[in-house]
Automatic annotation (TrEMBL):
This is Non-haem dioxygenase N-terminal domain-containing protein. GO terms for molecular function: metal ion binding. The keyword Transferase does not apply. It comes from Phaseolus coccineus. InterPro entries: DIOX_N, IPNS-like_sf, Iron_ascorbate_oxido_reductase.
């Protein structure tokens, strides 16, 4: 199992203004803050401050995500499967995520997915904004989730897209990427 990291150095924080007066100050209606901006707490938009009670105490310790071994399903051991299911339940309740191991998926497509994810988030802001999520939509780029949260904005970028499994087309994701990011990023889909 090789470790995979999403490169965070290219990440950008995006704030979608909420008032007309703020929007008129910007050329395209978006305020972008580079993630490596200097410590500027006094100048930071108030939407990025979270109440102290919502913050998690940071430690120098690396996060150890729960590992779920699904290789056990091959032998049909009901007790081991039940234990794995409980581990998934606990991980979802406590952490919100887990890592699946011994899944039997070829490593090449996994590596390619991480590579394309890094390619996507390293794009210039102007290119990312061509795929900006529309209000009420589920797909697209979002730098600050301003369409989801009005008072507390997360410090992350997301790029979401849907896969329709009923009556699906093999090219639906490729077609989506091409339609929002252009032909040169079609391979990312």
């Amino acid at each position: 199992m090789s470790p995979h990291l999403i490169e965070l150095s290219a990440s950008t924080l995006v704030l979608y203004p909420t008032s007309q007066s703020e929007e008129s100050k910007k050329e395209n209606g978006v305020l972008a803050l580079e993630s490596n901006f200097p410590q500027m707490k006094g100048e930071m938009p108030k939407e990025f401050f979270w109440p102290f009670g919502d913050l998690i105490k940071a430690t120098e310790e690396e996060l150890k995500e729960p590992l779920v071994d699904i290789g056990i399903m091959e032998n049909g051991d009901e007790k081991a499967i039940a234990n794995a299911a409980e581990l998934v339940r606990h991980a979802c309740l406590k952490h919100g995520f887990f890592q699946v191991i011994n899944h039997g998926v070829n490593q090449d497509p996994i590596d390619a997915a991480y590579h394309e994810t890094n390619t996507l988030f390293k794009l210039p802001m102007s290119k990312k904004l061509t795929a900006k999520r529309k209000p009420g939509a589920l797909s697209g780029y979002s730098g600050a989730h301003a369409d989801h949260f009005s008072s507390k904005l997360p410090w992350k970028e997301t790029f979401s897209f849907l896969f329709h499994h009923q009556g699906f087309s093999n090219s639906q994701i490729v077609d989506y990427f091409e339609s929002v990011l252009g032909q040169d990023l079609q391979h990312t889909g």
